[in-house]
Amino acid sequence: MKKHFIAVCCSLFMASQLYAQPLYKNPKAPVKDRISNLISLMTLNEKIGQLCCPLGWEMYTKTDKGVIPSDLFKNQMQNKPIGSYWATLRADPWTRKTLVTGLSPKQAAEAINALQKYALKETRLGIPILFAEECAHGHMGIGTTVFSTSLGQASTWNPELIEEMGKVIAMECRLQGGNIGYGPILDLAREPRWSRMEETFGEDPVLIGVLGSAFVKGLQAKDQNGKAQFYSTLKHFAGYGIPQGGHNGGRAQIGQRELFSEHLAPFKMAVKAGAETVMTSYNSIDGVPSTSNSYLLKGILRNEWGFKGFVYSDLGSIEGVAGHRVAANVKEAAAKSLQAGTDMDLGGNAYGKNLEKALQENLISMADIDSAVSHVLRLKFEAGLFENPYMNPKDAAKIVRCDKHQSVAKEVARQGIVLLKNNQLLPLDKSIKSIAVIGPNADNIYNQLGDYTAPQERSNIKTVLDGIKKIVSPNTQVNYAKGCAIRDTSESDIASAVEAAKKSEVVVLVLGGSSARDFSTEYKETGAATVSDKKKEVLSDMECGEGYDRSSLDLLGDQEKLLQAMIETGKPLVVVYIEGRPLNMNTASEKAGALLTAWYPGQEGGTAIAEVLFGDYNPAGRLPVSIPRSVGQLPVYYSLGEQNSYVEGPSTPLYSFGYGLSYTTFEYSNLKIEQSGKDTFNVSCEVKNSGNREGDEVVQLYLRDNVASVSTPEIQLKKFSRIHLEKGETKKVEFTLNREDLSLYNQRMEFVAEPGTFTVMVGAASNKILLKDKFELK
Q: SMART domains per the record (predicted)?
């Protein structure tokens, strides 16, 4: 009887304690009610803290007993409990985190666990933190899998593969405690002088939108309970990829119709795919900074597209509103940005130091603050962070950069290699007696990884030299010479390269660019690298990556001299470009026996390139951007259509959007167009592998609205499909064109499908249309 009495008392006590808990701690309560309850309990200071996202890499301290919260973190959390931290696990020269001072995946999980524990146990309301990390081509942390940068990803034209990649990136970051991944980058890149072109999916809104949506689905893949454990951040909203003069963050000179038809279209698709966070861009559009543009952030993003998540500023872009001189000071900039719909301040100072005073001065209302806080809290509740904020460090150590993930990285690299020219030189014979591997990018691990990459163990990266040595016969003599650097000319040794080439049967020359940061580079507060005018004994290779805008697209340093020297040897020459933007390829295109670009192919890039060179993999990458002949042509994107020739030469690009070669050939036939609904048309054709080996083909469907109420592109990609065909195999490829595919923004800026005739063009590239027919929308 006594035991029964004690049990009843314990049950009543537990029930009373559960009942005494605030509603927001009840996981069974509706999220909307939990948000309202929590906001009602918060002080102004706590609300403002939820809208701040400071830099995170100083928030932990490594000790002999493990990773613990730093004093700086504790002070911030006690002063104003923070809503989100950015780049807590980031390691690079800017953060000064190295392989020694940074965190392994296991240590990273321990660090985030410790920080979350402090937030939940040592702050008044116990609100968990959202940890955001850079994830555009792999989580930017030590020991993670490094994928091809976005131009390489886009060259796969394979949304299923990009979704799989997104799942891997999300898993690796989440296992270490991350909740938000910055990516994909959906900027429409039509200015190759711009330093961040490597981060984009190229020049076409449909290709960007399809691949970006696939990336979002991968990052935000649902668990067994139907919940996303990780969130994607779309960057950069909007019009960021066409800065004047190629200057990073420069103004976007763009009309409203082009803005909606092309630059906003990929974001609209990705929001529809479920993206939960968006980041504003540094630039202004028609004089209005994106970070304080209420028409974009509220009128379009929330009201028209139904976006339910929250909006990050880019780092320091709220302060930048004052820099654009549309606010007298940072306080006014903070007020304008909050009212416009920027919920979270990346950097934290603009909101953290100014919102309270802005409220006192009636520049904003409490409703403005509460609205932003509710958007942030919703994601925390829906992710289950109040109940399950911790990760298992052992899982992070076991799974991050596992063999399966590395195989996905290799597949992305393989599928993203674009063969541009081949005079029957490739594939090479593995039993070749000797081969020269030459060039500044032949054996440099960081030059093939791109910007936003953490420090790497040498053994984790396969360079082109590594890949060739592994794939050729043990009897093959591999002769390596660097020849020159990317930019520096003080230590060039072209003579040694010529000597290596002369004693070899064939030359593989690896040229291009680099986004590799070093510890001597100076950085702005935003993290962008600063191009220095100071004379250095040795120039770094970096000529691309955030902050490294170009005034030309020529190969830098002595690379052109090295190329010419290889040509003069008379040896069969394969030129490989490893690059972050389309660089000048005129000489290589004219003189080399084979030419390909791998962009920045990631950790498995050297293996992937070698497999293509020696025929273990049949290349099928297609260009996501046009390759110009000169800077004077710019802009030179494909949907401009035919242009008048210049006095000095043609106006066409050297290589067009959608272009790429294979080791086999394909035939297109039997184009059919059938109307299947009031404004729906089915388009089909047959594609045959008419060559001597299996391979992939990227079938591309372009459309032209022949007569419309406003000017439209002469040619516009609408659908595409990457298919695999065995030797001699024929497949039927089918596409569906719906009302949205046929619509335009008319003179009243209404998105409508106008009656009229449309031309369907199907082919292997934007300049290689093989089938054509028309249909009428009545």
A: Fn3_like (SM01217)
